[in-house]
Design brief:
The chain is of the alpha+beta class. The protein contains five helices and eight strands.
Length: 187
């Protein structure tokens, strides 16, 4: 398999370092994934044990090794503490597409964190991952996320009915997309 990058690509923004997630980050990330409000639209129940968080970190690392996923830890420049994650999953290299995902600690909501972070990872996807399309699956009630991706030029494509099942309840998701040509027409 042709590698697009030989080692985990670290990115930097004004306030954050987007870096590889290690097992030592489990306690910080457990605060994120165990918060019911943070994971409300994530598609899974809040974590109840640190082992679940460690398992997720292993999944992120395996996904990176298999070049199916790239998930950055969002670390504050001061202290290097993770406040969340962001990245791409369901990466179909031969189809030139992926899906974006992100979550951050509730205390960091509405402070421009994800706007700053997406401003770094979106160009990375088109320039270095050689993608043509980035999808975003968003719960219809997650208005903040819909507004965020719209600011970056994502287009709403439509509702995927009963697309996921969480705790025995089927939920719709709305598909948004950003194409490489959308970015080129914005500049």
């Amino acid at each position: 398999m042709e590698e697009i990058y030989s080692e985990f690509p670290q990115l930097e923004t004004k306030r954050f370092i987007l870096r590889n997630i290690e097992e030592e980050d489990a306690a910080d990330l457990h605060e994120v994934y165990s918060d019911p409000e943070v994971v409300k639209f994530w598609g899974a129940a809040p974590f109840t044990s640190i082992e679940q968080t460690k398992s997720l970190i292993c999944d992120f690392q395996k996904g990176y090794r298999d070049q199916m996923t790239i998930r950055w830890g969002i670390a504050e420049r001061e202290g290097n503490r993770l406040i969340g994650t962001c990245g791409y999953h369901n990466w179909a290299k031969k189809k030139f597409r992926t899906e974006i995902g992100y979550e951050i600690r509730k205390s960091k909501w509405r402070k421009g964190v994800m706007k700053e972070v997406l401003g770094s990872i979106l160009p990375f996807a088109f320039q270095h991952m050689k993608l043509n399309r980035i999808g975003a699956l968003i719960h219809p009630d997650n208005h903040g996320s819909a507004i965020l991706v719209s600011k970056f030029g994502f287009h709403e494509e439509g509702c995927l009915r009963d697309y996921q099942c969480v705790d025995g309840e089927f939920q719709d998701l709305v598909m948004y997309s950003l194409l490489k040509k959308d970015i080129l027409t914005q500049t």
